[in-house]
Design brief:
about 270 residues, alpha/beta, D-Maltodextrin-Binding Protein, domain 2, 2 domains, five-stranded mixed sheet, about 40% helix, globular, binds arginine
């Protein structure tokens, strides 16, 4: 090989590397559909909500992150997920600055007036987490206690339905992390949040002395991917999710995070 030819080859290799890096593709083993011209959707989340979304060594991680990546891949999009925080995510969906909210967001009738939701992708229920020794045996026992919730979540709505709206015994925190910190520091005696998150917190903080209970008056709720009202993407992501339900990818992701098989029947029923 001549010197000039070698030089050219090296330059070509370098520009190919650059080109590939610029395209950012290739992290998904099954790619193959040429990621160059995929549209990038802006996604907001509140990433202190393990196991759904949390920061792991500076990287967004969790069940929601895996599921959204898989759904986007299936639908032919790239997603740029930013840890916007909860309130900014909701505002960004309303203003249309965000294309998607993926944050363990419960589908509620009230929210449906403001956002569109995908088919349900996870069944949840409200759970109370409290410090050992706080005498809480049922939801009613929240009355008269200092209770923490994440602002504008179904945990807040559940606490309010028992204690009363705008009651000063309810403290509202901007993130799930701040809510759990308040429990830890003793600022509140109990927090009201989602079952998998409460269980995860108790499990990963074994020394925190946190107990969890649920209550019959809490009814099942379902998470959905949120979109601005009238979004063109809803139908495509519904289709993608249904494919992931059918082809086993959803079950794979579910088992990775929850170490058991998902109840597909319940999800299908909830979609009716
Ligand atoms: N599922 C609850 C709701 O929709 C709580 C979600 C909170 N999510 C979060 N990433 N902090 O209101």
């Amino acid at each position: 090989m001549t010197y000039l030819f070698k030089k050219a080859a090296v330059a070509m290799a370098a520009s190919c590397a650059l080109f590939l890096a610029a395209c950012g593709g290739g992290e998904e083993e099954n790619g193959g559909s040429g990621s160059e011209d995929k549209k990038v959707l802006n996604v907001g989340t509140e990433a202190t909500f393990a196991p759904f979304e949390f920061m792991d060594k500076g990287e967004l991680s969790g069940f929601d992150v895996d599921l959204l990546n898989a759904a986007a891949e299936e639908a032919g999009y790239e997603v740029d997920i930013k840890n916007t925080g909860w309130d900014a995510m909701l505002a960004g969906l309303q203003s249309g600055q965000l294309d998607i909210g993926m944050s363990g967001i419960t589908i509620t009738d009230e929210r449906k007036e403001t956002y569109d939701f995908s088919v349900p992708y996870f069944e949840s229920v409200t759970m109370i987490a409290y410090k050992e020794g706080a005498s809480i045996a049922s939801a009613e026992d929240l009355k008269g206690k200092k209770v923490g919730v994440q602002n504008a979540t179904t945990g807040q709505f559940a606490a309010e339905s028992i204690i009363g709206k705008n009651d000063s015994s309810i403290s509202k925190y901007k993130s799930a992390a701040l809510m759990f910190q308040a429990l830890q520091s003793g600022d509140v005696e109990a927090v009201v949040t989602d079952i998998a998150v409460a269980v995860e917190y108790a499990k990963s903080n074994p020394d925190a002395g946190v107990e969890t209970i649920t209550d019959e008056q809490f009814v099942p709720e379902y998470y959905g991917i949120a979109f601005p009202k009238g979004s063109e993407y809803k139908a495509e992501f519904d289709k993608a999710l249904n494919t992931l339900y059918e082809n086993g990818t959803y079950a794979e992701i579910y088992e990775k995070w929850f170490e058991e098989a998902p109840d597909m029947e319940t999800l299908k029923q909830a979609a009716q």
